Amino acid sequence: MSEDKKDKKGIALSRRGFLSLSMLTGATALSLSSKSEASIDKFKGWPGSFGMLTDLSACVGCRSCERACNETYNMPQPEKPYEDSSVFKERRWPDGRTYTVVNRYQGVGKSKRTAYRKVQCNHCLEPACATACPIHAYEKTPEGSVMYDEDLCFGCRYCVIACPFNIPGYDYDSAFEPKIVKCIMCYPRLKENKMPACAEACPVGAITFGKRDDLIKLAKKKIADNPDKYINHIYGEHEVGGTSWLYISDVPFEELGFSVNLPDRPIIELTKGYMQTVPIIFTTFPAIFGLVYAATHRKGADTKGGNE
Amino acid sequence: MSNQGTSFKDWMKDKLFMGKTPVEYSKTLVTPFNVVAAIILLGSLPVFWMRYTQGLSTVIHANSEYPWGLLLSWGIFAGEPLFACGFIVAAAYYLFGMKEFKPFVRLAVLGGMLGYIFAASYLLIDLGRPWRIYYPMLINYGPASVLFVVAWHVSLYCTVQLLEFSPAILEWLGSKRLHKWAVKLTVGLIIGGVILSTVHQSALGAMYLATPGKLHPLWYSSMLPLLFFSSAIYAAMSFAVILAQFAVRYFSERCDREFIEAVPTMTKILGKGAALSIFVYFALKILALAQDGRWGYLMTGYGYWYLVELLGLVAMPMVLFIIGVKMDSLKVIRVASLIAVVGILINRVNVNLIAFNWNQPNHFAGIIPPWSEVHMIAAMVTLHIIVFRWIMNRFPVTQELPQYRGTH
């Protein structure tokens, strides 16, 4: 009799224990992702990799870079010639037909001047597109270019969602061979020891090609030499873990449409915590729910389960 | 020979034409619902033709800022939390031993399974190269990607749900031996289903962890995975309440007495569960606001919209669920369920579209879908209902066949 009683109590306790344990573990597993521990294995980019530095104070909006890029990669001809400045009336963006575009911003900065900004892939050191791609169609090369393999892509466009700069374009017009279209920082030309076509074409030297480390030194020097002219910030030095393409400007970056609300951590750091909980769920849940099943389906227990 | 011919005819009559001859059966098909459905589906054919021969740009609004439109938002993100009903009800019955749910398990699993199959179908419309849909499973792996996790879990879960539903299919086919095996697998499958659902519901939220600069700070939170998972639980319970009511109202002749009599009790238990889980979600939403320090955004345009969602579509159904349970009112629980489901749909569309890339110039012009995208959604919803009806009218979903009584 007493034996029986003890047994019953044991069941009750253990059952409650299992249930609360299961809830706790589930919740902990899912909330681990909120932990933002500083990564000890922080990737600072490939050593000696190349980069580009755009000096936005120098750009005159001639669109030579657009033309050079178009010709280098045999892209579709634009609707209006490159000399036609009426394209500046609307804000354009890289898409399935172009790697890069130049936009005009009027009345910006202290002097309310007209400024131009070239837009293209920034070639992140730890690219969000590569993190997002479920098929691993993206690769950050040691040279610095972020490359994409259209033979692997199935066109989910999560890379476009994840890209902090809204860069990857997709040729939505193609029914049978749609693919991501984005700047490759002239990877084939780098391999031939040539600089990217846009940097070579720029008549005013607004785009400088070089080793990323050297470009950061150069940018710092330019800012230090002209502290009244430049904003004291190198865009791309730290944004989302750093980008190969860097910018300095005399106009606040937000006035030129740059995202200034980005974290300094790479995007992969934001999803890593969650990804680590997935195997935890796989290892713990079978045990937890197996025990729940056992606890609720004991022979002689008053709650009879269904699977009998 | 002729004997076999007639038996095949009988089989068709029995299994496909609901016991009628083909002529009798086709006469029953002319109903107002079917006429409207036919118009929607026929009208959508040119749209689908354009999509698959001329490219996505002819039918959906998509560009570098808004790669995903309403089609994907509705078809995958808004739908899947509701279709968690399969795993919630199956877990309640098989794992937690809540025997009240016995007559309901198959309907819930059917609702979930069909939902997932349709979610995959929406993906086949939206993927640039849908014929490569298996690439993340077989061709190349991106294990750092949250979408990789989603792809694997959704496809595995589709399989698990098909197996979970297989006893009904085997009963329809009359295969007793396979049926016995299928039933034996059940508990393992249910636990697998719980794992796969937990991971992929939370992963849908985790996908947006990658968008800190793009998703509005009120919706962006490091707790997104937990928020998506916890909201899927009450969404699934609410959807289950609606599904049970739907079956009793529109398929009463297919429901046995046991099912119909169990509906009020199940509705009350689901209402209780929903009251609890929606409260947990509400608390987590507040916690997310506090942890991320986002109070300042509440007094902006987006803040008011956020409050509509939080107060009108989470807090209100929460209060209604509590009132419904306390007053024992099925009607109040059903109204609460409906509001909760609408709230989930709006929450997911908020994350995917309305609050996504909110700081882009001309944001609202960028997210309004063209009519062709809306038409494709209407066609998919119509097809979803028709397939559901076809199965309900033939398979033993809301009834227990006498020869299989007590075997599952």
Labels describing this entry:
heterodimer, A: 308 residues, alpha+beta, Alpha-Beta Plaits, three-stranded mixed β-sheet, two-stranded antiparallel ribbon, 8 helices, 9 strands, disordered N terminus, disordered C terminus, B: 408 residues, mainly alpha, Formate dehydrogenase/DMSO reductase fold, 16 helices, 72% helix
Describe the protein in words.
Chain A has about 300 residues and is an alpha+beta fold. Chain A has one domain: Alpha-Beta Plaits (2-Layer Sandwich). Chain A contains 8 helices and 9 strands. In chain A, the strands form 4 sheets. In chain A, strands 8-1-9 form a 3-stranded mixed β-sheet. A two-stranded antiparallel ribbon of chain A has the order 2-3. Chain A has a two-stranded antiparallel sheet with strand order 4-5. In chain A, helix 1 packs antiparallel against helix 8. The longest helix of chain A is centred in the N-terminal third of the chain and has 30 residues, at about 1-30. Chain A is globular. The two termini of chain A are about 30 Å apart. By secondary structure, chain B is mostly helical. Chain B has a single domain (about 70-360), classed as Formate dehydrogenase/DMSO reductase domain (Formate dehydrogenase/DMSO reductase fold), CATH 1.20.1630.10. Helices cover about 70% and strands about 0% of the residues of chain B. Chain B contains 16 helices and no strands. In chain B, helix 5 (about 85-95) crosses helix 11 (about 225-250), helix 6 crosses helix 8 (about 145-175) and helix 10 (about 185-205) packs across helix 11 (about 225-250). Chain B is globular and about 70 Å long. The mean pLDDT of chain B is about 90.
Layout: helices, strands, pairs:
The complex is a heterodimer of chains A (308) and B (408).
Chain A: H1 2-31, E1 50-55, H2 64-72, E2 101-108, E3 113-119, H3 128-132, E4 138-140, E5 146-148, H4 158-162, E6 169-170, E7 180-181, H5 187-191, H6 197-201, E8 207-211, H7 212-225, E9 245-248, H8 267-296
Helix pairs in contact in A: 1-8
Chain B: H1 2-15, H2 22-28, H3 32-54, H4 70-82, H5 85-95, H6 105-126, H7 135-138, H8 146-173, H9 176-184, H10 186-206, H11 224-250, H12 257-292, H13 301-327, H14 330-354, H15 363-367, H16 371-392
Helix pairs in contact in B: 3-16, 4-6, 4-14, 4-16, 5-6, 5-10, 5-11, 6-8, 6-16, 8-9, 8-10, 10-11, 11-12, 11-14, 12-13, 12-14, 13-14
